[in-house]
Design a protein that fits this description.
Order of helices and strands: HEEEEEEEEEEEEEEE
Strand content: 35-45%
Distance between the termini: 100 Å
Largest sheet: 5 strands, antiparallel
Shape: elongated
Number of helices: 1
Number of strands: 15
Length: 239
């Protein structure tokens, strides 16, 4: 009796092992078949020859294109896999984006294209800056008759922490341009963060920003790109 029980247990155990083996084998064969039938060719995105890349570190690509308000202009960021810029001695980089915003993480220039005339121009003459934010300045952006008054930018172009490179640990520059990218003008340099940037009822730009431990507000005339009024915010209890 005990012998029959022992052999029955052996039989059940062998059956369990056989069943597990069949399941594992079936899964393995199914996986191999799936690899054959569903294997897709991995297409590597080409590196664009739009700017200098001697060390093969940038691997240039174009970011997501955005329209500048209701104008004929579009802007397309030039993006790099490298998240910093080596510090160099530079001359002047140029002569002369509240709507929805696009925040690229590695943009080093931006191309502005007229969709009507097909004319295109880069905002900067070099790739020696990081563009943090690009924002079209549109009043009443959900209205088809809305007016786009320019573009605002947040850019890192100074090695403020002296580590011989430009990256997100450096302070920023806030700048404005016309809708085609011309008239690029730096408004604030060396600040930490923009808290608010929006158009007021008179069509001027209202900005709140932090510089070190101080918070400031200002109003900018978008026709002249001149600061109309600037003041530090009062502390609690100040009369």
């Amino acid at each position: 009796m005990k012998t029959d029980r022992f052999f029955k247990w052996i039989w059940n155990f062998n059956g369990l092992v056989l069943f597990i083996g069949i399941v594992i084998g079936t899964l393995f064969i199914s996986y191999q078949i799936a690899l054959v039938f569903f294997k897709g060719d991995v297409v590597e995105q080409p590196t664009l020859n739009l700017a200098q890349d001697d060390k093969k570190e940038e691997k240039w690509s174009l970011g997501y294109p955005r329209k500048v308000g209701n104008t004929d202009f579009h802007f397309i960021p030039l993006e790099s896999e490298k998240l910093s810029v080596e510090k160099k001695e530079r001359g002047r980089m140029y002569e002369n984006f509240s709507g929805g915003s696009y925040t690229p993480t590695r943009s080093k220039n931006v191309l502005l294209i007229n969709g009507n005339t097909n004319q295109a121009a880069w905002l900067f003459d070099s790739i020696e800056q990081l563009i943090i934010d690009i924002k079209p300045l549109v009043n009443n952006k959900f209205n088809k008759n809305s007016i786009t008054r320019g573009i605002s930018y947040e850019v890192i172009n100074s090695d403020t922490n002296k580590d011989s490179k430009l990256d997100y640990t450096d302070k920023r520059t806030f700048a404005l341009s016309k809708v085609d990218g011309s008239g690029y003008t730096e408004i604030i340099s060396g600040y930490n963060r923009i808290v608010e940037s929006s158009l007021n009822s008179e069509g001027n730009l209202f900005v709140v920003f932090i510089n070190n431990n101080e918070v400031y507000s200002m109003v900018i005339d978008l026709l002249t790109f001149k600061v109309v009024n600037k003041s530090s915010l009062p502390k609690v209890g100040d009369s």
